[in-house]
Amino acid sequence: MRSLSRLTTAGVLGAAALALLTGCLGSSDSGSGDQDANRNADAKKVELTFGSNSVKGGKSSAGATFVQDVLIPKFVADQKGKGVDVTVKFQGDGSDDEVYKQKLSLDLSNKSGPDLFQIDGIWVGEFAQANYIKPLTDTVGEAAKVDDWDGWKQIPESVQALGSYNGQRYGVPGGTDGRVLYFNKKLFQQAGLPADWQPKSWDDIISAGQALKKISGVTPIQINAGTAMGEATTMQGVLPLLVGTGATVNSDGKWLGNTSQLRQVLDFYHQVYSTGLGDPVLQREAKGRDKSFAEFAANKIGILLESDYFWRSVVEPKAGVAKMADRDTAVGWALIPASKPGAGVKGQDFVSMSGGGATVINPNTKFPQQAWEFLQFMNSAEMVKESLAGAAKITQRSDVNSEVLKSDPMLSFVAEKVLPITQYRPGRAEYPKVSAALQQATADVVGGKSTDAAATAYQKVVETAAGGKDKVTSN
């Protein structure tokens, strides 16, 4: 997952101001965002700009190449067939995510910026709160124009949440991912554990870990912890466990504080790292996550919680960063269980967390109807499939997934079993500080502090981040 850089406000605003002066981001300024959603609907000559934090030959090069060389030309040709002369300009960037976010925010606050742009899913709520973006039904007009798009039927409701806020759609989600428990089948066999292992509770994970502990030189369980791993600790550790207790980090507008559910999660960390089931030193190393990948590939870690990225990019036999020649036979995967059956969020037996981005429409665009047509076109089955360039990756569309993932059982598993039950991080401005506090709480427990001490310290930090006790839950 991407982590946001910490920059000084002055430095960020300086970069953003420079971007405006140099025209780094295009302008669709058309005055007030309260204009008629049908403005210029019948225009025969249309100019659109598409913004993305990607650039050919640089950051997210494949995405930039697809947009410029495939998507835009095909959309222009499609519109020409309808008698409309469309020009679409790509406004690529290659900045750190936080720098790009600030550039874009400054543009939008001045009612300018690209007509359409891609943002991280956790920015959607923050941008909506700031009125930088509006629900699609407001920007495009008439709910039917948005709700009747046939593409929604192919995007699971859980995935649609990636581009939504407060129950309203602000954009269309792009590709996503899902988290599972990976396990080493060779080590499982040595420990007398089943090759088709599927734990039904946290106790089942601990029991498997205890069996694996009997094998010399093996770390039974790797659950990311501490501050060195940054957002990886939150997404590959705290949040999947938290939703397994029935709670989310933000609910009804309040942030999770020192609750029984948080203490359950910290107790689990304590159980893993104080009993020798996990390696506490690994959680404090700057390259601890990379080292955990290498150790899993070297048959030294039994169970590891990660996203599908681990399967397709880490232990991938030919090009992975920690290649496993026997990946297809040696690596197993299982759903992440709730703390106990039925205890997960929404009463689920199994849970997961996902990430990804969304494409949204600037409410100040001169051409809202044409922008909506572009958004539908880019998220059609044909374009989503072409965006993969032959690679096997999980997309937002179930129909595309069923076709492009059919030869990959692990990715198919995520698409079919994980995405329908997954959750996403809350898109709120305070989230990065709350996430950092969660990371510190796990670091405290792994470092030897009691669950109560770690949870109490966490509560104080979150109250400050959230802006007061009344914005934090505790029990």
Automatic annotation (TrEMBL):
Matching Pfam families: SBP_bac_1
InterPro entries: Bact_solute-bd_prot1 (IPR050490), SBP (IPR006059)
Keyword Signal appears in the UniProt entry: yes
Keywords: Signal
Signal sequence segment: 1-27
Cited PROSITE patterns: PROKAR_LIPOPROTEIN (PS51257)
Protein name per Swiss-Prot or TrEMBL: Carbohydrate ABC transporter substrate-binding protein (CUT1 family)
Organism: Kribbella pratensis
